[in-house]
């Protein structure tokens, strides 16, 4: 899509008027869409959103007030100007009450129309300039792929810079989707091993019996299926950094072996008697509270102390909402380019939703939301309607809908609006899962091993689900 | 809507087209274009007709009430 002027929708049953206004508005740099009736206008709006609509009041079937009413619901960001050759005070009052921007009498005073349209265009340009400035700021706020200007993030960046040259082992904690892997990579890139290998192993994705082989390697014939000798991740990452993602999922026997490697700096391939020296910086990441895991005997204290010499916590997104505009700008630029769109960013109302959403999935969730919006959207700004529609597909949606504002005010600069929309009571898959797992757990008197068996999943998979559903 | 009001509405639309296009033309013409006075005559006639319509409309509405 080539960047074009803002869209003006003109609705009038007199073709001559349509053409006249079209000529006039095109000269002002608007992209003009015309509709010969109220019905046609409503049809038009299904495929296209307009920045401003100029609507004749008197039209057969669907009149101007009805178009205005429907437009306010369908696209609250579209400014509506009504026009009529038969001005009456009543209809003018009604129009303004319904949220019309202005009311013009016919024959049109083109000077007045020009002033109104210039105002709309300037608003859009100001918004574009603001979003472009945020997008430019992103570059300055970026630190190794992370974006932040909140005090918490600046402190985190500072700690990474200070620790990176020296650290041997580190623990990164934070909720799911906060960017723990990026922190690990930053520790790697900012340190002396930047040119060496950075390897990742996701502990929740490895079959329990294969942990040792994955981490330390094996020799030929060490076990059934070991047809060739294979180095483990420690050898792969030798000289560099190894990220043990979701370390909380590591089974206890593997934890003991990992601890030994951290202490001796030597690995032993499964089935081999030789010790191999490795020089690996180990960074572990988890969204669990390892102190609790230790207290419950699911994580070794000694390994925890070994790893947590340097502990870096990544804040959840809801605690650093001042970063949301910049994160949004970065994601919009990325996905807009990827999908060949010319989306600049959110409307002010959409931005308010982004700022107040609870973001249980953190930055990843925001990123996914922007990706969906960029796939579906075409206009330069995405509206609160598009944002809510994409949000409700994620679990954050319900809460966000509750905090969202539906405003009938035509002013785009209003900062507060009453909460009038109730959350839609969608029955999400996660709800059904939560309910079912809860029931099974009650039946097994809280025994997770038995519950996992009944549910047909591994115990580790059940723990992961419990974490995700907030049942632990 | 009464026939009378429909008539006024449609007339206003048509006259608006005449005055609107003449204004557009005047706007686009060079200052020294020799056709300017002609277009200006069209515009003035259109505006005159609109004023006349307005007066007539007021009179007609006044009569209707009495």
Terminal Cα separation of chain A, in Å? 47 Å
Q: What is the 3D form of chain B?
A: elongated
> What is the tally of beta strands of chain A?
18
From the 3D structure, determine the CATH topology of the largest domain in chain A: Rossmann fold
State Rg of chain B: 15 Å
Mean pLDDT of chain A, to the nearest integer, reads: 85
How big a fraction of the residues of chain B is strand? Answer: under 5%
Distance between the termini of chain B: 20 Å
Separate helix tally of chain A? 20
* Residues in β-strands, percent of chain A: 5-15%
Question: CATH homologous superfamily name of the largest domain in chain A?
Answer: P-loop containing nucleotide triphosphate hydrolases
What can you tell me about this protein's structure?
Chain A is an alpha/beta fold and 472 residues long. Chain A has 4 domains: 7-108, 3-Layer(aba) Sandwich (Rossmann fold); 152-314, P-loop containing nucleotide triphosphate hydrolases (Rossmann fold), CATH 3.40.50.300; 318-403, Orthogonal Bundle (Helicase, Ruva Protein, domain 3); 429-468, Arc Repressor Mutant, subunit A (Orthogonal Bundle), CATH 1.10.10.60. Helix content of chain A is 47%, strand content 14%. In chain A, helix 5 (110-141) crosses helix 13, helix 16 (384-391) packs antiparallel against helix 17 and helix 18 (429-443) crosses helix 19. Chain A is elongated, with a radius of gyration of 29 Å. The model of chain A is unreliable at 395-426 (pLDDT under 50). Chain B has one domain (3-65). Chain B is built from 2 helices and no strands. Chain B has helices at residues 3-28, 36-65. Chain B starts with a helix and ends with a helix. The A-B interface holds A 12, 14, 16-17, 20, 23-24, 27, 58, 85-86, 106-108, 110 and B 1, 5, 8-10, 12-17, 19-21, 23-24, 50.
């Amino acid at each position: 899509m080539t960047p074009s002027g803002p869209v003006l929708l003109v609705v009038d049953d007199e073709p001559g008027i349509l053409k006249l206004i079209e000529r006039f508005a095109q000269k002002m740099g608007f992209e003009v869409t015309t509709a010969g009736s109220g019905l046609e206008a409503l049809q038009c709006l299904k495929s296209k959103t307009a920045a401003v609509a100029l609507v004749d009041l008197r039209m057969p079937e669907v009149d101007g007030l009805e178009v205005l009413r429907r437009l306010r619901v369908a696209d609250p960001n579209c400014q509506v100007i009504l026009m009529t050759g038969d001005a009456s005070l009543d209809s003018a009052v009604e129009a303004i009450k319904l949220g019309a921007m202005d009311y013009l009498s016919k024959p049109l005073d083109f000077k007045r129309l020009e002033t109104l349209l210039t105002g709309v265009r300037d608003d859009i340009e100001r918004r574009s300039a603001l979003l472009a400035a945020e997008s430019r700021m992103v570059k300055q706020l970026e630190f190794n792929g992370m974006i932040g200007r909140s005090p918490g993030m600046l402190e985190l960046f500072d700690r990474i810079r200070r620790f990176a040259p020296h650290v041997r082992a580190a623990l990164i904690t934070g909720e799911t989707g906060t960017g723990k892997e990026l922190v690990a990579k930053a520790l790697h890139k900012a340190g002396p091993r930047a040119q060496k290998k950075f390897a990742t192993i996701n502990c929740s994705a490895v079959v329990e019996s294969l942990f040792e082989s994955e981490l330390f390697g094996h020799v030929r014939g060490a076990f059934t299926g070991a047809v060739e000798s294979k180095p483990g991740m420690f050898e792969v990452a030798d000289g560099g950094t190894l990220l043990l993602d979701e370390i909380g999922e590591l089974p206890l026997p593997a934890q003991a072996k990992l601890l030994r490697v951290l202490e001796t700096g030597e690995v032993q391939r499964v089935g081999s008697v030789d010790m191999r020296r490795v020089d690996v910086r180990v960074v572990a990441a988890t969204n669990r509270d390892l102190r609790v895991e230790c207290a419950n005997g699911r994580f070794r204290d000694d390994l925890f102390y070994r790893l947590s010499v340097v502990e870096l916590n990544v804040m959840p997104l809801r605690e650093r909402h001042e970063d949301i505009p910049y994160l949004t700008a970065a994601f919009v630029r990325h996905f807009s380019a990827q999908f060949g769109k010319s989306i600049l960013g959110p409307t002010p109302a959409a931005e308010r939703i982004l700022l107040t959403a609870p973001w249980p999935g953190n930055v990843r969730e925001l990123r996914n939301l922007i990706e969906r919006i960029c796939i579906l959207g075409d206009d330069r700004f995405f509206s609160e309607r598009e944002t809510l529609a994409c949000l409700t597909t994620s679990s954050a949606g319900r809460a966000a809908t509750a905090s969202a504002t539906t405003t009938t005010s035509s002013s785009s600069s209003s900062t507060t609006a009453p909460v009038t929309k109730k959350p839609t009571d969608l029955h999400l898959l996660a709800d059904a899962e939560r309910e079912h797992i809860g029931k099974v757990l009650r039946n097994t008197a809280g025994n997770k091993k038995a519950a996992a068996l009944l549910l047909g999943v591994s115990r580790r998979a059940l723990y992961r689900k419990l974490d995700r559903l907030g049942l632990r | 809507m009464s026939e009378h009001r429909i008539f006024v509405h449609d007339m206003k639309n048509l006259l608006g087209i005449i005055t609107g296009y003449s204004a557009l033309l005047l706007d686009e013409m060079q200052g020294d274009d020799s056709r300017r006075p002609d277009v200006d005559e069209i515009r003035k006639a259109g505006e005159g007709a609109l004023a006349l319509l307005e007066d007539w409309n007021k009179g007609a509405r006044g009569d209707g009430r009495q």
